[in-house]
Amino acid sequence: MMSAEDTPGGQASPNPQDLRRSVFYSIKFFVLCHSLLQLAQLMISGYLKSSISTVEKRFGLSSQTSGLLAAFNEVGNTALIVFVSYFGSRVHRPRLIGYGAALVALAGLLMSLPHFISEPYRYDHASSVDMPQDFEASLCQPTTSVPAPTPAPSNSSCSSYMEAQHLAVVGIMFTAQTLLGVGAVPIQPFGISYIDDFAHNSNSPLYLGILFAVTMMGPGLAYGLGGLMLRLYVDIDRMPEGGISLTSKDPRWVGAWWLGFLISAGAVALAAVPYFFFPREMPKEKHELRFRQRALAAAASSVSKGEDSPAEQNPGESQEKQASLTQIAPDLTVIQFIKVFPRVLLRTLRHPIFLLVVLSQVCMSSTVAGMATFLPKFLERQFSVTASYANLLIGCLSIPSAIVGIVVGGILVKRFHLGPKRCGALCLLGALFCLLLSLPLFFMGCSTHEIAGITRQPGNLPGPDLFPACTEPCSCPLDDFNPVCDPRTHVEYLTPCQAGCTGRLVQEALDKSQVFYTNCSCVVGGGPVPAGACDSACSHLVLPFMLLVSLGAALASLTHTPSFILILRGVKKEDKTLAVGIQFMLLRVLAWMPSPVLHGSAIDTTCVHWAQSCGRRAVCRYYDHDLLRNRFVGLQFFFKMGSLACFALILVILRQQDKEEGTQVTVSTSGLQQQLLASGPGKKPEESRV
């Protein structure tokens, strides 16, 4: 039944001819629009993770701060996601989805704002006048020929204007991430419930399977977009005269991170437009779709079982599932709803299977959150690959592998009709092999090459007394960063000045120019030495490393659908919707929010040389590669061990429950046989159900 306010024209029941003409009364068109919107929304949500190391370099952030920034969109999302269950179908769902998408697009524009309000990026801070002086300032010059420094005005401007600008930029990005989480709140839950309400009962699993299949490509597109954008120079809209002498392999290179946010925000804004024309309610679909390929529907149903809403698992139960929370409080006010929710939460958490599955998923999600945020940076540092190449590897290998794992897990559950016990065994095997594949990762890497003047202990800063004696005639600025590499000894120097170089030579080529520094007193033979950092000795291991990571991601994703089945079959029917809602709330609070911060903090502890900005610690220049690999992979290994332990306990409990049920059935059957014997052959028991 439609009320007058539910239809755009204000009529009680729309004209059937109008319904045929208007594409906005088609649930198929809504599925198409919602697939594109969720694709764009996940692309903009995942884009920051693809450019996290670039944002660190551009604004001088530590990994802990960047991890907090990446996790901050979960704050707004978690704070409001509970109320989605309260509002349910009381609101105009398509219109609210449109408003949420508009807020996501606004957050994307806000994320790119720091680029436009900041000064142009200067990869060499030795001089603030022009580029030739920058090059000369990096060279070794006698102390007498260098003008006396004037630290007072510099410190004054640094402490006031520069520090205020830095705080403003960081504040804008944190605000944008919060708005991004708030805007994403209504998109998926309201879209799924809208499809399940008005699709034919037999078509709903197929539609939701298509929706999730398209949506899962969003993170892959985010990394692909990051790979393309980071090939462009950050100030492509305001290039300095004469161009730049950096290449994307230079450690000072900063890509056009902001451009991806503009593109993603534009895609979300375009995808949001149709939602303002969909009705609050539409006639329920009457005809079932018929395909010769029945396997497509089965696979789509399997995929839809493992995602964010239980409304996909059995179309015939859609009304029960949507009414689960409203059965508890059908007409509660918001205040009453907040009072009732904790009691229902505690009742749900008393289920041991539910609690253990959620804990296992918390461990697995912590692994995914840390890997998604910092794997590009890890590849850059460990294997000396560019940021764009690292993103393309993840977008082309890891994300598709995870998608395949989710689909295969759903197909296995559907094809073999796996019950809770077998689902638990499948989860245990997936977690076990995922853990075993993590072991070789500890040994796939190499130590940090020698860096002149930098000690290996984390936290120590270089001082004048640590530099080689060959630089005594030079006056090398301590905060300068223009690395050069001695290819013979594989020793890296922070600047040409610290290598004792007094000359500079540019070798022009067809497509690029190569810079060399000459007359270097700290280098055997005096050089020349090329500009740029030394390449890693184990760059060839990046592809085997990523293949193992991708295979592990596929095995971890294999547990996705079976673990959902354990939850949906382990709680009461009326609590299913609420159980899944509580599950995702706990995943956000316990995994997606703290895990990036935890991984970032662990990465920061492996730093051996910090850049300084306005007297504060800024971005890390160099890491201890062995320590970085052991702590990053070790943290992943720890979470995978936790997930494996939880699945093992689940299997033990399920086997114990099977034994108890078998004992009860045996006792009931023997009692029934005794009643039959006592009643005699001529009497029939009134109740013979076991």
Automatic annotation (TrEMBL):
GO terms for molecular function: bile acid transmembrane transporter activity; sodium-independent organic anion transmembrane transporter activity. The chain crosses the membrane at residues 29-48, 68-89, 96-117, 164-185, 206-234, 254-278, 353-375, 387-413, 425-445, 541-566, 578-595, 632-654. It comes from the Eukaryota. Residues 300-322 are annotated as: Disordered. Residues 464-524 form the Kazal-like domain. The keyword Transport applies. GO terms for cellular component: apical plasma membrane; basolateral plasma membrane. This is Solute carrier organic anion transporter family member. It comes from Odobenus rosmarus divergens (Pacific walrus).
